[in-house]
Design a protein that fits this description.
This protein is an alpha+beta fold. The chain has three domains: 5-64; 80-179; 190-349, 2-Layer Sandwich (Alpha-Beta Plaits). 68% of the residues lie in helices and 10% in strands. It contains eleven helices and seven strands. A five-stranded mixed β-sheet has the order 2-3-1-6-7, with helices on both faces. The radius of gyration is 31 Å and the shape is elongated.
Length: 350
């Protein structure tokens, strides 16, 4: 039976973290989520092949360059999902194939039944004898029975396929959700952001509608981790994600952008509305007091937020870069503030 990663206790996850982070640091591996997944499994020794790959690399003393780290993540975390998708596709093809065979057989039966009805009609015109009528009726009864049975089998196959398709749809939805969800905060992840950015900028360009972006950074997060530990840091990230999530609605897309950063894409929202939302998020988080596990309370939790409005025709990367520069200007000006692109242009023009 496979492990349920969400059943791990806070204490156990803290112990694992204190093992994994020094390991990654010792071997020069950046502590991004993808690498942490690999080294978490290595420390747990739950996948013998992964352990062998990592141990072999350590014994060779050749290090863990980015390309090899990516290969490990692809091999042990991405490829299994791809394989599951391939299995789903194969199952769909098999289900469709079985139904098509049944439908073809039914079509053949109906063709034969139609031909028999034509022959029967022609025979009746010729004023058949009693014996000929008896034979015609017997043939009609037999052909009707065979066609009804074939129709029942086809209907059963269609019902089975419908259930299989529903099961496969649920599997695909689960895979899609997992692939697009951040495991820690349970909001959309960076992959979902990249997809959403491409889709929403294209929609805004085609329809001439407004689109704004908030980039949100948790102030002094490294200091918070150093002071209270990564378990508290994770709790704070979940808390901030929940607070922002309560402020967005409809088609707004909240994502964990990376580390302690979040991004909010706001379709059909003008610049002024985005600035107001950003200020509301900043003020709400600042006003909260976060309870810690040891009974203490964490106060003065603040955010720096950059706001940009999409300009039709610009590259999505330029749109994100503008919001990023706004956010960093807010940090340079003392943090705990919202900076919009119009403020950025004013500052850069000064």
């Amino acid at each position: 039976m496979s492990r349920n990663p969400f059943s791990v206790s806070t204490e156990a996850s803290h112990t694992i973290l204190k093992t994994v982070l020094p390991l990654m640091s010792r071997h020069g591996v950046p502590t991004i989520p993808e690498n942490y997944m690999v080294w978490y499994e290595f420390a747990q020794a739950t996948n013998p092949d992964l352990v062998a790959d990592v141990d072999g690399r350590i014994q060779q003393g050749v290090g863990f360059p980015p390309a090899f780290c990516q290969q490990l993540h692809e091999k042990y975390f991405v490829e299994p999902i791809r394989e599951e998708v391939r299995e789903i596709q194969s199952a769909m093809r098999e289900a469709m194939g079985a139904v098509l065979v049944q439908l073809k057989d039914l079509d053949d039966d109906l063709g034969e039944f139609g031909a028999m009805l034509d022959d029967t009609g022609a025979s009746l015109v010729r004023d058949p004898t009693r014996e000929e009528l008896t034979t015609l009726v017997a043939r009609l009864v037999e052909q009707t029975r065979a066609t009804r049975e074939r129709s029942a089998r086809a209907e059963a196959s269609l019902q089975t396929m419908a259930q299989q398709m529903e099961d496969l749809r649920l599997q695909v939805n689960l895979l899609s959700r997992d692939a697009m969800t951040d495991g820690l905060t349970e909001v959309a992840n960076r992959r979902a952001f990249d997809h959403g950015l491409q889709r929403l900028t294209a929609e805004a360009a085609d329809g001439g509608t407004a689109l704004c972006l908030l980039l949100v950074d948790l102030d002094h997060f490294k200091q918070l981790n150093d002071t209270h530990g990564h378990v508290v840091g994770d709790s704070v990230l979940r808390f901030v994600a929940q607070e922002i999530d309560q402020c967005v609605k409809g088609r707004d897309l909240l994502c964990r952008y990376g580390g302690e950063e979040f991004a909010v894409l706001l379709p059909a929202t003008a610049y002024e509305g985005a600035m107001m939302l950003a200020e509301s998020i900043r003020a709400i988080v600042e006003a909260q007091v976060v309870p810690l596990q040891d009974g203490q309370m964490l106060e003065s939790l603040t955010l720096s937020i950059g706001v940009a409005e999409y300009q039709a025709g610009e590259e999505p990367a330029a749109f994100v870069d503008r919001a990023d520069r706004c956010m960093y200007q807010g940090k340079s000006e003392g943090r705990n503030r919202v900076v919009g692109e119009r403020d950025l242009r004013t500052a850069e023009g000064a």
